[in-house]
Amino acid sequence: MGKNVPRLLCVPNFSEGRNEATIHAIADAACSAGVTMHHLSWDYDHHRMVMAFSGTPTQVGRAVLRAAAVAIEQIDLRVHEGAHPRIGAVDVVPLVILRDISREQAVAFSHRLARRFARQLQVPVYLYEHSAFAGRPKDLPTIRKRVSAGIEAFPPDFGRVRMHPTAGATVIGVRDPLIAFNINLQTTDPAIARQIARQIRQERATNPDLQGVRALGFWLPARQTAQVSLNITQPDRTDLYRIVQYVRRQAQALGTDIRETELIGVVLASDAARALQTALNAPTMAPEQIIV
């Protein structure tokens, strides 16, 4: 993709983590739009798949609509059971600016995409983060809670005031870069993961290492492990390595340790460089030193 060509990253989350035929059909539909696929993963316990792809706004919009059409056809939330919070088969469609497009232009694009999504697929759409209309909630957890409490009391931004019978509702919007990161513990006690997540939520307003970190604790029966699932929403102000070390200290204080970690989606080179600099105790580490 040449210089001065607008480029967006899209990291859609779908409520399917068990049927691999459906998972690959959704991914193939997105790829058919000409986007560059950076990541595809799914999890049985969360019953969720995540893709990360990039392209021009036109390519990204086409990929979202094609993938969503497959997901809505094949996913039925009426029989869906998974650990991860959700309101839709196409649960959330984050858009992240990569280059050569202003926030105003990206938000305008997200509004057009949301309107078209609701009209073509008959799924109500809520806007979030930078795309949210004035006076409306911006953060995803609040939107999920309000939708779950009743769509009539919290009408969508686009589409009918009625949940799709099998696909629910969808959230779309332009957001800042974040890091989705899971830490699996060496324990079968989910209470430990929940306690660590709760401690993060309590300390994030006062602990500089935890600014903007959202955390939940889960039990993953298929893997027989407890998990601390993190969304690092201010990666420019935090440090992934320091967050991992914080969780390690908390886990050790509770008699366990970290078993493994998982990056879900992508991480920007600047954020990876910051974490690597801390881990290696290096005076400097520039993103340009990381070559792909």
Please write out the topology:
Layout: E1 7-10, E2 13-14, H1 20-31, E3 36-43, E4 48-55, H2 57-74, E5 90-99, H3 103-121, E6 125-127, H4 140-149, E7 170-174, E8 179-185, H5 190-203, E9 213-220, E10 225-232, H6 240-253, E11 258-264, H7 269-280
Parallel strand pairs: 5-7, 6-7
Antiparallel strand pairs: 1-4, 1-5, 2-4, 2-5, 3-4, 8-10, 8-11, 9-10
Describe it for me?
The chain has 292 residues and is an alpha+beta fold. The chain folds into two domains: 7-174, Formiminotransferase-cyclodeaminase, Chain B, domain 1, CATH 3.30.990.10; 179-289, Formiminotransferase, C-terminal subdomain (Alpha-Beta Plaits, 2-Layer Sandwich). The chain is 34% helix and 24% strand. It is built from seven helices and eleven strands. The chain has helices at residues 20-31, 57-74, 103-121, 140-149, 190-203, 240-253, 269-280, and strands at 7-10, 13-14, 36-43, 48-55, 90-99, 125-127, 170-174, 179-185, 213-220, 225-232, 258-264. The model has no long low-confidence stretch (mean pLDDT 96).
Q: Give the distance, in angstroms, between the N- and C-terminal Cα atoms.
A: 16 Å
Number of domains: 2
β-strand number? 11
What is the CATH third-level topology name of the largest domain? Formiminotransferase-cyclodeaminase, Chain B, domain 1
- The sequence of SSEs as H and E is EEHEEHEHEHEEHEEHEH
Query: Which regions have little confidence, pLDDT < 50, spanning 5+ residues?
Result: none
Name the CATH superfamily assignment of the largest domain.
Formiminotransferase, N-terminal subdomain
How many strands, which pairing sense, and closed or not: the largest β-sheet? Answer: 7 strands, mixed
Q: Determine the structural class based on helices, strands and strand pairing.
A: alpha+beta
Query: Quick check: average pLDDT?
Result: 96
Strand content: 15-25%
> For the CA atoms, what is the radius of gyration?
19 Å
Question: What is the CATH C level class of the largest domain, in words?
Answer: Alpha Beta
Shape: globular
